[in-house]
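Proteins fold. Shown next:

***
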Amino acid sequence: MILKIFGVLGVQSPDVTPDLARLISPKPITSLEVREDLQLKLWEVLELFLASLDDKATVADFRDFLFKLDWPAPATAQAVDSAVKAHPELFEEKTEGREKFLTLKESVVR
């Protein structure tokens, strides 16, 4: 999971000391290499994002997060919706008023 987080954060991730790098990878790595090697899927990034929050997020919150990280693949609202629907064991949608929120299912929260 540490490598996934490192890959997601990209250049926003703090530098990795040589000692830490040896613990998490057999070779020196950069976050860009991790991002490319792991080929993280949108749903995996969404899972990590929601796990880091206390409660919930909108699709716009998640898309803003990806934009700030300079995520290479465009994350349209439809792509996020598709990721959520493809993984009903992980995600649920909750509506409050007119706003729709994404959350991790209780059984997934670590």
Notes: The longest strand covers residues 91-96. The chain has two domains: 1-40, 42-110.
